[in-house]
Design brief:
The complex is a heterotrimer of chains A (269), B (279) and C (252). Chain A has 269 residues and is mainly alpha-helical. Helices cover 74% and strands 0% of the residues of chain A. Chain A contains 13 helices and no strands. The longest helix of chain A has 31 residues. The two termini of chain A are 34 Å apart. The relative contact order of chain A is 0.16. Chain B is built from 11 helices and 2 strands, in the order H-E-E-H-H-H-H-H-H-H-H-H-H. The longest helix of chain B has 34 residues. The radius of gyration of chain B is 22 Å and the shape is globular. With 279 residues, chain B is mainly α. Chain C has 252 residues and is of the alpha/beta class. In chain C, helix 5 packs across helix 7 and helix 7 runs parallel beside helix 8. Chains in contact: A-B, A-C. At the A-B interface, helix 1, helix 2, helix 4, helix 5 and helix 6 of A face helix 1, helix 2, helix 3, helix 4 and helix 5 of B.
Amino acid sequence: MIFKGIIIFFAFVITLPLIVILLYIIKQGITQVNWHFLTNVPAPPGEKGGGISNALMGSFIMVLMASVVAVPVGILAGIYLSENPRTKLAYYSGLCVDILQGVPSIVVGIVVYMWIVKPFGGFSAIAGSIALAIMMLPIIIRSTEQTLKLLPDSLKEAALSLGVPYHRVILKVIIPCGFAGILSGITLSIARIIGETAPLLFTALGNNFFSMKITGQMESLPHVIFTYATSPYDDWHDLAWGASFILLMFVLTLNIVTKLLTRKWKIQL
Amino acid sequence: MSILLVLIILGILTTLIMESMPSIKSLGIGYLWGKVWDPVQNIYGAYPFLIGTLLTSFIALIISIPFSYAIAIYLGEYNPKGWLSDLLKNTIELIAAVPSIIYGFWGLFILVPLVRTLEMKLNILPFGVGVFTASIVLAVMIIPYGASLGITLIRMVPSPLKEGAYALGATRFEVIRNVIMPYTRTGLFAGVLLSLGRALGETMAVTMLIGNTTALASKFKDIIFGPGNTMASVIANEFAEADHTLYVSALIELGLVLFFVTVIINLLGKRIITRFTNN
Amino acid sequence: MENTIVKAENYNSYFGDNHVVKDVNISINKNEVIAVMGPSGCGKTTFLRGINRMHELIPGATSKGKILLDGENVYDMNAIYVRAKIGMVFQRPNPFPNLSIYENVVAGYLLNGIKVSKAEKDVIVEKSLTSAALWKEVKDSLHKKGTFLSGGQQQRLCIARAIAMQPELILFDEPTSALDPISTSSVEALFHELKANYTLIIVTHNMQQAARVSDRTAFFYMGELVEFDDTKQMFTNPSDQRTQNYITGRFS
């Protein structure tokens, strides 16, 4: 009995920090959020007001660009892995996916810096998006692969026996049937990268001004939190709380969406 | 498409190696245990950061293990279904979902003052930031990884095994200790490895909480409770300011070391798990 | 000779080095119902799948010899064309879960991107479902997904789907082994009606079903076509001792 008590204690006590963090951010952050906050750029320290509109737009643009790259590549790779599990290429790419999943985000950042920022002479949202895309890939690939593996073979057979060529079987039967699972992988990967700062530190950096120019520096939600939280100005701290609140809401919503999507499929992500 | 994947990984590896080359060439293997990191004088020793990384990760690991295990045992064995366990499971997943920057931010404003008060009580220099603080937050962040893996593993213990023990009159505790634990031992070890892998690569939260000095304190007490640096955090802090090639290259070499360490640990953990689940 | 629809000449099938169908020669006429029976592992399903070239989709599966459909060797034709020309119904009913009943019936056209006007599609759907004895039961729920249908109804939907492609030949791979007795008899009754317009080859491991529904029966044993004869004749007076053993239940 004592043992059980100890177990229960440890198991539940850990929910405390989370609750504390959540409550604190909500409390501090929600007071910051208003229309002004969402539509203005940061004010210089000492001035009241200011907002995170540049960060919001920046995050939106970069996540969008990253998805445009990562989603097709990821889904195709996932399809390949689920359809051809025994080839050598499948083994090695599977290995690479595992490796990629473990690479620290900062390492991805400095590598993309070397690939793109240095040769092209400047920080850019494009570079940031590529770093984010690299981080999205393993999640999308794995969830696509596992969703498709769960589909019964009889589905493919039925389509093939009707004289449907292979690529159409994939496009018109397999992918639509596995759609929920594939989509959940996408939402999960977005939830993951929307809060990533390290890969953006040396790629997109940040930008005090509202910008949609993807070849230039761009601000992002997590980066703005980092900059303002570590600054010495109280006004900026307030901004950081507000931004944290918004970020948290996004992440939570995406995770709930993912949950709902995976309810149909028992996928281990 | 998968070929692209392989190319990306190979690309990452090659870039890291190539760019570290200058540093490797001039500093040699002594880099790994050099204690001085002085960009101005072009002396680079990674030792303090290795220590910082290992310390934070291991302390975080040690702190997190009882919690991960407890959660795994509770959800895997005591209470696998029901609204309470669903609630707990969702909470754990939520912990994993929160971006690290938020942990760092919160840690900076809430945890650091607390630690400061603690340090003052213990008569240590009240930095507030440092290895200790970073480890605590890191521990919270990695608990979900060990826990979710543990749950899967414990649920996989075959019922006949457990029932046999119960039939012999064993208590819940004894079944857990003598049947479940040994059976899942390898798997749980893999879970520890994966948590470690996560901890090693964690950057933002650590960067915000660790204090960022490049010197290694001499007294153990100071190392733990004073500011420090991990490989990841030093890259985060200094990369943007690195202005000469050797400096950049030294930082990239750090990245290379980080890459290898995390990749090896993660792969090891995954291999153990696949072997375990395929048995 | 004019009446032959399918003819196998020295047909062999392999899984890697495993020789599973050995030198089969058989000739099947139009509008016949042929039962293919034999113990587990005798090669009957593998042979069936060789006819519409589904066999080669399995990695490492190969075959030798000819299968003539209306005089032409299917192995000289485009495989996808062959599969579209020959209908197949599987052991487990497998309607497409993301398509409605209506769409399932015309799936062969939809998935291939073949343009058919709505009016024509309506006609095809009604005709196929009627031939599959399913029309009355589903005509008011055509646009719902077929998940509420019973096993027997789903299987008849699959039959309708195969019929919609207007094949001359329909292959059945143990079509009732996953169904309950009532559904089984409704599908068996269907065979009798389909015979008027199609040729059916039915693999079954149920001897009594073979005896009930077929005109002629082929008996496979260990990869060989042991005997192929008029059904009544085979079951009352088989020529081969192995057939006799199988029928009397010596092995199954």
